[in-house]
């Protein structure tokens, strides 16, 4: 039976669609250094397949990744055989060491369901911070910036493989319900379809800010960021 690996498709798709992980990591490194000039280590929380982490390691040398999904971690290990990668949950992890920077990219915190979970996650980030360190979180959209009914559609081709991704996002309660359909074709092998539903919480800006404050961090929100959703930056208060 012809099977496709979902994490492989995810990787190919975002890189092929032009998401510039190297440029994003470089901008985040500059932001980290603007708050913590001597920064020498970084933890990437919800690191996925390790694409930012690869570039963060070139910037800081001493890095680690944390990720919930074994599937994503398997790919991160393949990409970065020498990296320190932990399987864990951002709401409650203890790595037994601290970092100059703790970052979480591409709206991974949106997978948290409640403000209690968001508070717990940001508190865990703060607990892993060296004195004078910095936390950077890329949020999901806020309720007022999310475009209800949004459709995105792209086709990406690489090494013979073609991936088409179409998504439709609607508001469901305090979350985005994003239905994503992938069609993947490999020459001589066949064509497969799979779909996922993502529920991504539409936390308010004030809820993110409250999580940082409760964790003992002074927070600012920077507009723009890698995906237009902005960035929260926290330093010890
Ligand atoms: C949109 S992906 C982003 C991955 C990566 N940061 C990137 O920029 O490509 C969201 C990631 O968050 C991870 N994730 C979701 N909930 C998590 C949790 N509670 N703890 C750790 N990782 C989690 C998922 O497994 C997934 O890899």
TrEMBL record:
Transmembrane segments: none
Keyword annotations from UniProtKB, A to Z: Antibiotic biosynthesis, Methyltransferase, S-adenosyl-L-methionine, Transferase
Residues in Methyltransferase domain copies: 43-133
Pathway: Antibiotic biosynthesis
Family statement drawn from the similarity comment of this UniProt entry: Belongs to the methyltransferase TylM1/DesVI family.
UniProt subunit comment: Homodimer.
Name recorded for this polypeptide: Methyltransferase
UniProt cross-references to Pfam families, sorted A to Z: Methyltransf_25
Gene3D superfamilies membership: CAC2371-like domains, Vaccinia Virus protein VP39
Single GO MF annotation: S-adenosylmethionine-dependent methyltransferase activity
CDD domains listed in its UniProt record: AdoMet_MTases (cd02440)
InterPro entries according to UniProt: Methyltransf_25, SAM-dependent_MTases_sf
Top-level taxon: Bacteria
GO biological process annotation, one example: methylation
């Amino acid at each position: 039976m012809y099977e496709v690996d979902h994490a492989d498709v995810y990787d190919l798709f975002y890189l092929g669609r032009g998401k510039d992980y190297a440029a994003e990591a470089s901008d985040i490194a500059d932001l980290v250094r603007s708050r913590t000039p001597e920064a020498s280590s970084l933890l990437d929380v919800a690191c996925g397949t390790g694409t930012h982490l690869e570039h963060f390691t070139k910037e800081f040398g001493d890095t680690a990744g944390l990720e919930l999904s074994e599937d994503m971690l398997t790919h991160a290990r393949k990409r970065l055989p020498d990296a320190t990668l932990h399987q864990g949950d951002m709401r409650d992890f203890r790595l037994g060491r601290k970092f100059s920077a703790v970052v979480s990219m591409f709206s991974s915190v949106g997978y948290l369901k409640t403000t209690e979970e968001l508070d717990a996650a940001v508190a865990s980030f703060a607990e892993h911070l060296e004195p004078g360190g910095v936390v950077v979180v890329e949020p999901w959209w806020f309720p007022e910036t999310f475009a209800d009914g949004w459709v995105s559609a792209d086709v990406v081709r690489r090494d013979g493989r073609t991936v088409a991704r179409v998504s439709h996002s609607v508001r469901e309660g305090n979350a985005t319900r994003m239905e994503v359909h992938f069609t993947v074709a490999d020459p001589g092998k066949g064509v497969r379809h799979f779909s996922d539903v993502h529920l991504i919480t539409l936390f308010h800006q004030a809820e993110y800010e409250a999580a940082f404050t409760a964790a003992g961090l002074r927070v600012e929100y920077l507009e723009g960021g890698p995906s237009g959703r902005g960035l929260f930056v926290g330093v010890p208060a």
